Amino acid sequence: MVKKGETIDITIDDIKFPNKGIAYIENNKKIIIKNSIPGQKLRVKIKKKKGDKVDAILLEILEKAPNEVDGPCPVFKECGGCSYQNLNYEDQLLLKEKFILDILKDFHLEDIYEGVEGSKKTFEYRNKMEFSFGDEYKDGPLTLGLHKRGSMYDIVNTSVCLLVDNDFRIILTSVLNFASHHNYTYYHKRSHEGFLRHLVVRKGIMTGDILINFVTSSQGQLHEDDLVNSILNLPLLGSIKGIIHTTNESMADIVQSDKSKLLYGQDFIYDKLFDLSFKITPYSFFQTNTIGAMQLYSTVKEFVGTIRHNTIYDLYCGTGTIAQVLSSNADKVIGIEIVEEAVVAARENAKLNKIDNCEFYSGDVLDLLDNIKESPDIIILDPPRDGIHPKAISKIINFQPKAYIYVSCKPTSLARDLPYFLQAGYTVTRLKSVDMFSQTPHVETVALLTIK
């Protein structure tokens, strides 16, 4: 029997979503090691035991898995931004297919599952990155990048990050040099003291528009002109449209605005999905993989079919991207979203695209469904990662449309919500995944549910 603190050698036998390797030991106990893949031989240290599960910390990779490759990013082993650069992309897709089928195994959907559609870009696909200021080790020099794997505090310099294009990397390097030159302190998460917090870069993949948000606390003075000039002189392929300084006093390690000041240009950019344009503000939701979003929305549109419908509901509609993509499929599309800023953006984008049959309402789905009179032919569900609130599901089901299309960014939430629809007489007739997040365990899954 293994003991807490003990060091042992194991082989990873299986893997569980999102990135938990499993090794089986005596009496079928499971040792769980994050960021490992089947076939690896590892030296681990037992961290804690609970029932038949044992958590362990990776100390050393003794032998690679048979299908393991060297991750192309120089900081892959240290950075927490990616999990699976050490697998060829074909193996990543097989792994994601396994995740989906394992999680949904109780529904017996293997025969209708259409697999995972791979991303057209497996690197340099992200249109937004939130970089954090900090140090790579305690009291080390200032750095800027992503969290070190398994750490809440240490930051890895990701000036070589391969999930974004070279403009992001150039901007990160320039901003870090600027901050180091001025001897700024970074904001310490434990003491809540310090100045620099985050650098958020957004880029229109189809337009080249770039928006930069420099996030600090109020515990310092920003050299605004130096920052703007250092960025505007960079040799970028895209075009800087705006630079913002945001003051954030929240103790939580999140990007939010207590006060924002526009230092240059405008506080928005544009990007395109198909022939539609979308205005993107600093805090508006827009899928982080633009090309992948078009693949995802093409799947949704395919599931909707070619027959024109009277009314489509787009619940949890965000900035109304799906609603506008489906505007040609119905006489009316009604979108509901709890974030008021997103609804304002949705209305503005519909006007920009000269779409007049989309209506957007701000509020909780649970409350607003009581006030909408039109009966939907199809309901699109694209909920947050945690899925649909159980109280909202009953109201959604009461509409009894011909079909639901559930767009899930977290398969465990889909598995939790599906029984409600099945009990109401619906059946899953199509199921397909779309990979928008290569090199990571995450995958979008689209389910078409029709009434029996």
From TrEMBL:
S-adenosyl-L-methionine binds at residues 287, 316, 337, 382. SUPFAM superfamilies: Nucleic acid-binding proteins (SSF50249), S-adenosyl-L-methionine-dependent methyltransferases (SSF53335). GO terms for molecular function: rRNA (uridine-C5-)-methyltransferase activity. Keywords: Methyltransferase, S-adenosyl-L-methionine, Transferase. GO terms for biological process: rRNA base methylation. PANTHER family: RNA M5U METHYLTRANSFERASE, TRNA (URACIL(54)-C(5))-METHYLTRANSFERASE. This is 23S rRNA (Uracil(1939)-C(5))-methyltransferase RlmD. The gene is rlmD.
